[in-house]
Amino acid sequence: MIRGELAHRAESLALERRPFVYATVVRAQRPSSVRAGDAGIVLVDGTIEGFVGGACSESAVRLHAARALETGEPLLLRIVPGDGEEPAAEGAVTVRNPCLSGGALEIFLEPRLPAPRVLVVGDTPIALALRELGERLGYDVVLTTGDEEEREPDDAAVVVASHGRQEERALEQALADEVPYVGLVASRRRGASVIEALRAAGVSEQRLQRLHTPAGLDIGADGPEEIALSILAEIVKTRRPDQGPLAAVSRGLGAIDPVCGMSVDASDPSPHLDREGRRFWFCSEACRRAFQEDAAHDAAAVSDFTTGLVLAAGGSRRLGRPKQLLPYGGTTLLGAVLETARACSFQQLVVALGGSAAEVRTRVELEGCDVVENPDYGAGCSSSIATAMTALDPRCQLLVLLLGDQPGVTQAAVQALLEGRADADVAVCRYDDGRGHPFLFRRTVFAELEALRGDRAVWRLLDRRGAPVAEVRVPGRVPSDVDTWEDYEAMVAAL
Fold this sequence. Notes:
The chain is α/β, with parallel strands linked by helices.
């Protein structure tokens, strides 16, 4: 596909609101079949249109394009031969490809995501102001009369500003479709009347609680423009950090080539092979053929490489001293957690530090652990998870998440989780009084983990996934963690 055709294709996809990644080769070291300036489009399903290199480079492009779509952030992908000594560069992702026959490549991956769409029912002055101001804020605002069904699955909001026309039908449909934000522009009295009409029509109380009326934050707005501003502010406030166009493109892809050990994209365009009820993914047809011809690879591929991740980056602001180092059972809180983690015989053990990292390194035995430091630990545990993901062994298929201030988690709980997860992508422990750590994640959701934001983001991920999360029964109460001196004193008293 020549450059002009590629540009037209990109424009067409944008008009269709289809997310994609525009991949441009910015550097190609000889020998190479690709040249700087070559480009391609990577679709959500992993299809590549254009040319960004041979089969092995395409596999890396697919994988990291999927991750760029997850995060919405562009990145520079550096693909180097497996025996090269190329250093990692700041702001770039470096992939070592043992199968790469040519020179190193650098490919810029730019995600093109559709703007969040806001459907506005009505053509009133407030509706027109919503369109004008919303487009300045980066929203795709569509005005409709409400006579026809124009909902799309990824709509960020539906605002009814029609002054009595087609209100109830539009609101009932938007609530049934679970649009993240549903608002009605009306006075409090008329809004209450509309709610009663919806209730009489059979709309559940749970859905009615999600209806914002009067729409907009209470900022004393006066006039169409200010009311539109208050509504858009409420839309921004209501939308969760893990919502938006990324949810529609999330594939949670990622697998390990059992022949060369390279991380590859687990989507249909990638070479794959089904054997004994399991699908294996490869970077190229050459690795797929080698796997077929060498039965020895089967034994290595069947066992799931498991990494334990201990989060111990908290700043302990409420305690006034590093809680990782508080005495506990002849060691420290973190030391006790690591003793349990080592007993679990993980193939890899990663520890994420942040606050007081230097002191923790001197006072806690970290031998055998891959230690990462999260400079942004104040942004919540999700930032520590994202930092730790960079240290995962390429063979890692399962990630077990433990907390560094939760020494009550036992080896038996970890073992029960590993044995009881079945084929679930996500598994948690179900204690007598609720869900609790440790959590387990398959490689298929690693991209989702890397894209999380905030301190409770992992819990939101569990809630969002719902039924696919396996709950493994573990007797006893949810193990305590330490946020206050009262928590610590109760934990020590229970020893």
